[in-house]
C-alpha cells in the first residue's frame, strides 16, 4: 500500500501546487520512493530517540545521511500527541486531554493520527510554512497507509489544525 499512498500523494501535490510532504518513518524504507518521485520539500519525522530502546534511534544513521544529502529534512523530537503526557498517564493512570485528541484521531485510523501529529510537529519545528496546505503521510506499524491534506496549527493552538481531505486511508 505504501507505493499507492506515495503515488496518490505526489500526483495530488503536483495537481494542486503543494510543495511540502511530511512523511512519518521508523526505518526509512518508504522515504526513497517519495524522494525519487517528488521534487518539492520532503520532511521525514522519525520516532523519538528512546522510543524502543532508551538512548537509541531506530532510524538507520547511514540512510539518514544519504537522504539528507538528497535534500530531505529530518525531525526527531517528542511526539506532540503523546510525549510527556503519556509519561504522566503511565504513572498516575487515567487519560489526559492530549491523549484524548490522539485517540479521537485514531477513530479514522492510526495513519490519520500519525499524519496530523507529524504535520503539527513539522510546523512547530519550522520545517513547513505556517497557514499553508501540505500533505502528510502516515501508517499503522509498517509502511504507509494514509495520506491527508492538512493545514497544521501550532501545538499551542492544536484545534486550529484543519484536515482538508483524506486522500487514502485503510478501511477500519
TrEMBL record:
Q: Where is the Pyruvate kinase C-terminal domain?
A: 4-148
Q: What is this protein called?
A: Pyruvate kinase C-terminal domain-containing protein
To which species is this protein native? bioreactor metagenome
Amino acid at each position: 500500500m505504501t507505493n499507492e499512498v506515495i503515488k496518490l500523494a505526489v500526483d495530488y501535490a503536483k495537481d494542486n501546487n503543494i510543495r511540502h510532504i511530511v512523511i512519518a518513518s521508523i526505518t526509512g524504507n518508504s522515504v526513497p520512493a517519495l524522494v525519487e518521485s517528488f521534487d518539492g520539500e520532503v520532511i521525514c519525522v522519525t520516532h523519538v530517540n528512546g522510543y524502543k530502546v532508551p538512548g537509541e534511534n531506530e532510524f538507520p544513521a547511514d540512510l539518514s545521511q544519504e537522504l539528507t544529502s538528497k535534500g530531505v529534512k529530518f525531525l526527531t523530537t517528542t511526539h506532540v500527541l503523546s510525549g510527556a503526557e503519556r509519561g504522566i498517564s503511565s504513572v498516575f493512570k487515567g487519560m489526559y486531554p492530549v491523549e484524548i485528541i490522539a485517540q479521537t484521531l485514531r477513530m479514522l485510523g492510526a495513519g490519520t493520527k500519525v499524519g496530523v501529529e507529524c504535520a503539527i510537529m513539522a510546523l512547530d519545528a519550522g520545517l513547513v510554512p505556517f497557514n499553508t496546505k501540505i500533505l502528510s503521510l502516515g501508517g499503522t506499524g509498517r509502511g504507509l497507509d494514509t495520506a491527508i491534506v492538512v493545514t497544521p496549527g501550532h501545538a499551542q493552538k492544536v484545534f486550529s489544525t484543519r484536515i482538508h481531505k483524506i486522500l487514502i486511508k485503510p478501511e477500519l
